[in-house]
Design brief:
The protein is an alpha/beta fold. The chain has 2 domains: about 240 residues, TIM Barrel (Alpha-Beta Barrel), CATH 3.20.20; about 80 residues, Non-ribosomal Peptide Synthetase Peptidyl Carrier Protein, Chain A (Orthogonal Bundle). It is about 45% helix and about 15% strand. It contains 16 helices and 10 strands. The strands form 2 sheets. It has an 8-stranded parallel sheet with strand order 3-10-9-8-7-6-5-4. A two-stranded antiparallel ribbon has the order 1-2. It starts with 5 loop residues before the first strand and ends with a helix. The relative contact order is 0.12. The chain binds flavin mononucleotide. Flavin mononucleotide (FMN) binds next to strand 4 and helix 10.
Length: about 325
Amino acid sequence: MRIKEIHIGKLKLKNNLVLSAMAGITNSAFRTLCAEGGAGLVTTEMVSCQSLKYRNRKSLKMLELSPMEHPVAVQIFGSEPQAMAQAALAAEDYGADIVDINASCPVKKIMRSGSGALLMKNPSLLSEIISRTTKLVKIPVTVKIRTGWNQNELLSPRLARIMEDSGASAVTVHARPVSMFHAGPVDYAGIEQTAKAVKLPVIGNGGVRTAADAEKIIATGCAGVAIGRAAVENPFVFRDIAMGIEERNLRQDMKEKIKLFLKFLSMNVELYGEPSGITKARKLAGFWLKGFPDSSYIRAMFMSAKTLQEAKDILVKYTDNYETN
Ligand SMILES: Cc1cc2nc3c(=O)[nH]c(=O)nc-3n(C[C@H](O)[C@H](O)[C@H](O)COP(=O)(O)O)c2cc1C
């Protein structure tokens, strides 16, 4: 895999492997692990610009960054240009290195307010959001879009040009249409045409688990690769890809993965206290423990844990059990 430094605006990233934004997952504790695991840039969960406008406590907490996770992009969503620009300013004040505009989320609740992927249907509004935001903040502004709305429809090259003209510093393209959510084949030809259409760096996203997958995205002309679900199963996937390690033998790595999960849990407890730090990790447990022997049993056991000690007892007993078998 061709690992290289890339520039996003004035910001230099040590490599071109990016942790993709994931709601309910990419909190500060998780991002810190991914930064440690070799990501060149990590991205927050999407934060609502309207909630920030009304100084919602939970949304403000989402802007808090740890010194260990930089460089970090804060992703915001909304459809009101002024509120989006103000949200970006708040992110900059909290120490964000990049602000990323979500124009790719297919969830109905988000699109109902004209936000997320619906912005792809309103390029002039998206352009106004970008230009207002870039005028207000000093940090680079990036945008995440999809290749199209439906299969066999390619919108991203034209949209990327509009973003470039509006002042964006990079564009991430999730190479699946909005209608397919997060599933289905990756449209390599679509990202290739997008990368060709603009001078700014295009970060390709979709289905990357191994160095070979990342290489396929880079071969399209993309400057970098964004990784989502594979990082939730293995926050060190960035280092593995950089080193050319193909998929790991889960059974061999079980103990290491559990150790990492416990480290994550302890950081999460520091962030949210008990029991929230443990209960908020339930969504992640589903991904992290995927493929383990008796994974539904261990997941169900984990769901009953309320404290770090209970979680530790359950997970350590589980690994010891499999080691001796
Ligand atoms: C649970 C979950 C939450 C997600 N939340 C966001 C989000 O908040 N913002 C965003 O831009 N994409 C979000 N995504 C999409 C991912 O960033 C990524 O584009 C998608 O999973 C495809 O990449 P992958 O195939 O490497 O997982 C989410 C995906 C998942 C699975």
